[in-house]
Design brief:
Strand content: 5-15%
Order of helices and strands: HHEHHEEHHHHHHHHHHEEEEH
Bound molecules: zinc ion
Structural class: alpha+beta
Helix content: 40-55%
Number of helices: 15
Length: 346
């Protein structure tokens, strides 16, 4: 007997050193309390304080009928005093929902906030799907799009993602602007004491994380784009860029680029393809595309020095034109390589 007394005194001593608010909140964590349930349903605080007890009795009666036992007890701070009240587990919400429609005053209560959903709910409804959209995005995702379609498809895809990020940002800013003053207080009060995995808590947390998640998504998209742009895997063959559209063929001509100079004298169309100039003004290597009225079309490159047209090279088919181009390119490349041995400027 004396032993039990000592033990009890020790407990009382220990308890006096404990912050009761913290202790009671811990004991009651995760329990749904009547007043908090009511404000969570959008009932205003004054109504909850005034009719909370009567609503609580209705709920307890329903619980007793259904479970055959008394509801659990939890601690609640009512008007600055800690009191033992009935508490319900999140799995027992049905009891409270039933009481809400059974108890006359709550059943007839017109929700003031019913027309306007909470800012966090609006945000999650509009933007809640975005984090998953960006979560698995990487360079390989973009390469997959490119292989399946084209390089342009990747640009289009990235553009669409950027547009989504802007939309997402707008939704977050709407949420941020809405969460001020009373709305903000009410939103936070509504989730106080609710368990971590309660949908209401998760909704608020998701909205609160919005700006961080948008930044993360931007970083993910950016990293994917950089990975794809500087692709070193060599797994994607990028098609050559499209050639510029062919010039329009003038009326009365047979080839594009002909200015008609040789129509009347020789009946031929001639289009200049440009020239390589040599030292002095009077020596050049021009190339032309020629289309006679009769006879095969050809490209001709010829040395021109005012007095002679002796050095010619005619190309009558694509293979011979390509062979000549190959030689010009090879010479161009060789000059380019050899230029490494020259000073940058003289
Ligand atoms: Zn012509």
């Amino acid at each position: 007997m004396s032993h039990a007394l000592t033990s009890r005194q020790r407990h009382i001593k220990a308890a006096s050193a404990v912050d009761l608010g913290v202790l009671y909140s811990t004991i009651s964590a995760g329990m749904l309390l009547i007043r908090r349930y009511l404000t969570g349903r959008g009932v205003d605080q004054e109504f909850a304080d005034r009719y909370g007890s009567a609503f609580g009795r209705t709920a307890a009666k329903i619980y007793r009928t259904g479970h055959g036992v008394e509801p659990r007890r939890a601690w609640s701070n009512v008007n600055g005093k800690w009191r033992r009240v009935n508490g319900y587990l999140p799995t027992e919400t049905e009891t409270l929902d039933e009481a809400f429609t059974t108890y006359k005053r709550t059943a007839e209560y017109v929700l003031p906030a019913a027309a306007e959903p909470a800012p966090a709910e609006v945000y999650v409804k509009e933007a809640g799907h975005y984090p998953a959209q960006f979560a698995d995005l990487n360079g390989e995702s973009l390469r997959t799009i490119e292989r399946a379609s084209s390089t342009e498809a990747v640009s289009e895809f990235v553009k669409a993602q950027l547009a989504d990020l802007d939309t997402w940002q707008r939704h977050y800013e709407q949420y941020d602007r809405a969460m001020v003053g009373e709305v903000d207080q009410a939103a936070r009060a509504a989730v106080q004491g609710l368990p971590w995995d309660d949908p209401q808590v998760q909704t608020l947390l998701n909205a609160e994380r919005g700006q961080t998640e948008i930044q993360q998504a931007r970083d993910i998209l950016n990293a994917a784009y950089v990975d794809w742009s500087f692709d070193l895997t060599g797994t994607v063959e990028i098609p050559e860029p499209a050639r510029p559209a062919s010039p329009v063929i003038a009326e009365g001509c047979r080839i594009p680029g002909c200015d008609g100079t040789w129509h009347y004298d020789d009946g031929i169309c001639v289009a200049s393809l440009g020239e390589v100039r040599f030292e002095g003004e009077d020596v050049a290597l021009p190339a032309e595309l020629v289309a006679p009225a009769d006879g095969p079309r050809h490209i001709v490159a010829f040395a021109y020095n005012m007095t002679s047209l002796n050095f010619r090279r005619e190309m009558r088919d694509r293979t011979s034109a390509r062979t000549f181009v190959g030689q010009l390119r090879a010479l161009g490349d060789a000059i380019d390589d050899a230029s490494a041995h020259l000073p940058a400027a003289s």
